[in-house]
Design brief:
Strand content: 15-25%
Structural class: alpha/beta
Number of helices: 12
CATH class: Alpha Beta
Distance between the termini: 27 Å
Largest sheet: 6 strands, parallel
Helix content: 40-55%
Number of strands: 8
Number of domains: 1
Radius of gyration: 17 Å
Shape: globular
CATH architecture: 3-Layer(aba) Sandwich
Amino acid sequence: MTTTNGLLKQKILVGSLPVSAGVTVRYIINRTISVIKSGETLSCTFVNPGCEITSTRYSDYSDLLHKFDFVLPDGVGVVVAAKWLGRPKLYRASFDMTSVARPLFDAAAQLGACVAIIGGKDGVANKASEIVSESYPGLHVGYHHSGFFKKTNEVVEGIKQSGAEIVIVGMGAPYQERFSYTLARSNWKGSVFTCGGFLDQLIESDSENNFYPKYVDSLNLRFLYRLYKDPLRLWRRYLLHYPLFLYRVIIQKLSGG
């Protein structure tokens, strides 16, 4: 997969995770608009320190990340680690309303673009589609599907038939990356973004689609707020998986890699 100008942004290794350097949220939104107008394809996913364990458990995950046009640092942990390693500057970008989602939906609404939403348990994508449609007049959600399916080709075909120019995929890593890569290689044209647990966050948000209190966002304490909201699911990520990322980064620093 290539970007519209045929050039891939530079990726740097932070731990074992390839991350796109020097890419801002505004740049991604502008590229998405360009892709819609030019009829090409763009793929974007996000990594956090917890993805380090994913790369050890799934042999295809790291290869998939290298094949995406953009791999952006989800949260400040990867950004800080890259700075400590002396790598080119990274800019935090998450698929949520504090970062990529809001300006992406704004741009889609202004263009009158068609969006597809894939992910979550039964009913989640449908509810998320209703919220997005109501919040962003002009944006059309042409297709939605739960994140649990066996026939990938049927979902890909549904997206194509809907005319969706932007696809949001929230299935968890590496499943969302596998599906997004399959879609991008299927001769479909548009921009595909993975979104992790964003669909559930959107449903749980207040009337302004804000999942995080403003003070939590401003202090970069989003990970603590998520842990507070969902401790049974997330405690392993933050207390067991994140230390693996820290260990890999320290080894990388000591080895000069």
